[in-house]
Design brief:
By secondary structure, this protein is mainly alpha-helical. Helices cover about 75% and strands about 0% of the residues. α2 packs antiparallel against α8 (about 165-185) and α5 (about 95-105) crosses α7 (about 140-160).
């Protein structure tokens, strides 16, 4: 999870550099070409380029693609217009939103303490966004929308069976984003593509591939309650990359809101682990009895 977060942040930072000369849909299309070639080549090497998809997974894969494409569109739109650390800070509410989504749509049991932590965490996100304030940027709402799409994507990923290789899922995701960029590109003016921009997008695609693979593998085979808090390492990387590459320094409200979200998220995962261990102990006692 830590490797995934670092890879995604580096990808975001390099894409933000490319956005100075290219439109949103150009970035999605051109980066999609590079990442599809990379992931496709790796899938061919691992003999996972083509695989039989069980009927039960077809619909889930389709909805996962919807979540991925929607999340990418929303987050990149935010990333192009607000500082890297701010966009990443809003995404820190993702684990809390995942817990809420799992309770709402998957029927997972969530106690009042975790619901309270989720509510406080979302208040922290509002501090980051600060609607109505002097420094408010309405593009922050796009990052909030991205959280919703990513939660939908991850909840769908958790329902996929083990018969669908993670590498194939990553390839399908890359193809979908590339295709979306190609279809939507005519809606904006096509900007001249420089060698420098292509190099940026090639670098971004490499890190994006690693981000996809490690994220999917973690969600599918790792213990979510243990691994999810490590998502918060992305904020550290975002602050570092934002300062080094764009001279951006998060203000105190962004840092305060991020701290609230992170503390509530870690508390939520702590409660989830305690409840899981308690349920396991009860199951073992019943079996012994």
């Amino acid at each position: 999870m830590m490797v995934s977060m670092a890879a995604f942040v580096v990808n975001d930072a390099v894409v933000k550099l490319a956005s100075e000369n290219l439109s949103l849909f150009q970035v999605m299309f051109l980066r999609g070409i590079f990442s599809t070639i990379l992931i496709g080549s790796f899938a061919w090497y691992k003999k996972q380029l083509f695989c039989h998809i069980p009927k039960v997974d077809l619909g889930k894969l389709g909805w996962r693609v919807v979540g991925e494409v929607g999340g990418t569109l929303c987050f990149l739109n935010a990333l192009f217009n607000i500082p890297l650390a701010n966009a990443t800070a809003i995404l820190q509410s993702l684990p809390l939103a995942m817990t809420f989504g799992a309770a709402l749509f998957l029927g997972e049991t969530v106690g009042w303490r975790r619901y309270l932590a989720i509510a406080i965490g979302f208040c922290g996100m509002l501090i980051i966004v600060r609607p109505g304030s002097e420094g408010f940027n309405h593009y922050s709402y796009w990052a909030v929308a991205a959280v919703g799409f990513v939660v939908f994507r991850d909840l769908t990923t958790r329902r996929l069976t083990a018969n669908v290789p993670s590498l194939f899922i990553a390839l399908l995701t890359s193809v979908a984003i590339m295709t979306t960029g190609a279809v939507l590109s005519p809606l904006t003016t096509w900007q001249p593509v420089t060698i420098q921009s292509l190099i940026y997008l090639m670098i971004a695609s490499v890190f994006l591939m690693f981000g996809y693979l490690f994220s999917i593998m973690t969600i599918r085979i790792g213990e979510i309650g243990f691994a999810a808090p490590f998502r918060y390492t992305s904020l550290v990387w975002a602050i570092i990359m934002g300062y080094l590459m764009f001279s951006d320094i998060p203000d105190r409200w962004t840092l305060l809101g991020s701290a609230i979200v992170i503390v509530m998220g870690i508390y939520t995962f702590h409660r989830e682990r305690k409840q899981r261990i308690k349920a396991l102990d009860i199951r073992n006692d019943n079996q012994n009895a």
